[in-house]
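WARN retry 2 of 3 for item q-0093 after timeout on previous attempt; input resubmitted unchanged.
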Amino acid sequence: MEASAIIGAVEGVTKKWAKHRKREERDTRAVANRSRAMTSVKTPIKYYAMKVTEEAYQEASDNGRLPAYVRQIMYAARRLIQNYTDDDLGDKYYIQTILQEYFQTKNPSWKNNVVTDARGHFAEPHTKVSIGVGTLEVRKYLKHGTSGDNFDFEASTLFPTHGVVNRMAAILFVEKEGFLPLFEAVNLADRYDLGILSTKGQTVVAARKLVDELCGRHGIPLLLLKDFDKAGFSMLGTFKRSSQRYRYRNTIKVIDLGIRLADVDEWNIDSESFHSAQDTWTMKRNLRKNGATEQEIAFIADDLQRVELNALPSQRLVEFIEAKLAKHRIKKVVPDTVILDEAYRRALRNEFIRHRFEELKDQADEFANDTKVPALKRKVATILKDDPTLLWDKAIAQLAAEVDYDND
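OK item q-0093 returned
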């Protein structure tokens, strides 16, 4: 036998052993499966993946209490499946094939609690205003924002604002849209006065424009929630400096809320290996440029390991984020005394009207019942002919506005 053949045979045997030993160091439960993993008849990984899916969902969703992103379920399944096989569970294969087949064949009651990706969005806290992160949507939002100038005694008591002013403590950028239902379920935005921005994949120019105006002009920080990998650090660099695609007009305070190497150990987060077409030197240069430490660079570029936010179950992810918010002292918004005084007087005016409303309502009902109703059909038809964009009830409102209320 040639030397190369002997080497190949030895590596073929030892590679599987070394792989399983490494898993044993991370999870003592795998020790009991060593003999079976090395000697048992091969069973398709699909069988085991289907077997652990229910448990994976329950783990990711805190036993169904919280929404779970598909990749959170995938990470839980990937770890659970190690109890049965040494084969690697591919993320796309699990999400696009196995999980979909599981839904079709099992039709679990929790299927609608599983979240998948969507496109980018920005949402204000409290107002429920949400926009798509596209050029036109961002441009319109920055121009008009939201305002409470039109008083409605039955609805909003919000102080008139425009965008972040007196409303947001920070903008939280999330590189995955699948977490948004989770944040809504735990009221993250409202509890911390956070505007939440998300895009699918790398940041788009519209997102940078929005951050430039909201954070840069108004002096609130940008909180970046990202994976611990090269793409995450690249995203961090994208918000910290200008590029050919977008040049910032303002200085932005960027706070990294994402996973770092110290968090991997502290929070006991699973890492995963990856393959890169980029050479090690180029990857290290990029990581160093975007703020990674030398230890982090070695972890990613030399060991070819990465850590995703999805590896944290929903409840743990919320705890992780809140710990970071506390560390960086992100607090509720309380404006200065001038704004507070103005807001108080506005609230007094609103409450004065609210308390007088019932009396006015009775007078209004009496007036409406005693007023003769004109022939409306022709009048409404005429108004709609002049302005076809109107609804018929808008035409009725116009006619009501022509009544002389002062000479009743």
